[in-house]
Amino acid sequence: MTKSLPLVFTAPRRGKPPVHLADLDAAGRKAAVVAAGQPAFRADQLSRHYFSNLTRDPALMTDLPATGRQELVDAVLPELLTEVRSLACDDGDTRKTLWRAHDGTLIESVLMRYTDRITLCVSSQAGCGMACPFCATGQGGLQRNLSTAEIVEQVRLAAASARDGALGGPGRLSNIVFMGMGEPLANYNRVLSAVRQITAPQPHGLGISARSVTVSTVGLVPAIDRLTAEGLQVRLAISLHTPDDELRDTLVPINERWKVAEVLEAGRRYADATGRRVSIEYALIRDVNDQPWRADLLGKVLREHLGQLVHVNLIPLNPTPGSEWDASPKPVEAEFVRRVRAQGVACTVRDTRGQEIAAACGQLAAEG
Q: Which positions bind [4Fe-4S] cluster (predicted)?
């Protein structure tokens, strides 16, 4: 057993992002405004523009004095992300954007319209250190953690884009999934701070329901337990990808530290504390993890560890160029679903999006 090993994932340091309103608590925001030479109450005005009006454009902040307005915005709401390019597909319902941070770091986010919601897939790190071999982000390694504000800014920009019709008509961003680049729980403090600002009521945050936020992890057990103790109502998603330790040691290398049973027990503690079902993410890979016996075993171990508090989200693999990995044939996928359900475990296939625009995490950034 290796539980005693410290949970430390050190990100290579690049240039530190400038401090932003979204990095700060209420007192910190006021202090930043005062440091910029303005009265403290301007912090509430800036928060309203940023979180409620979804803007950092000084020209739209007509309640601020014209003199010094630009300087105040530059100091407290510095530009964090610059769009490199956006690609759309699925009849305009999916839009993937490549962003460049202040230090040249590239990250991605994907905005998706469904019949009943608009969802943003957000990145929490530039790259990823978990080294899962079938993942484009994992193949590139970890560059650095994103700041709280860099995460929140992805959501703010997406909310503004949805409002302004980027998906073919005006809409409201309603759901956030931390399933973009990076392992969210390896950047725990910044991700948690971002979640709190995403879910805080306007104008102190973006006002998105915590129940509409999903935080994904490959299975960092101590961090799952920390999240459990937070008392949040976010959904926990565990990227399992196979129910047996032998294969998972290869597909998800962190499994050598925390085995399948340990990860699922941590998921059960989260479900018991929150009353929310845990989502099990399972990328179905041809001839690797799609065998009928693995479907039977998946259903069995999930029922044993999580009971009814679980849902399997089967993901047809979005292969990356030159990769040896490929998606399972549809008949194999259908049989896998049938067998998991036969064990009494809910199982659905995720709607695939964006294959023609390199929508697998990390592909667009890898292309530059």
A: 128, 132, 135
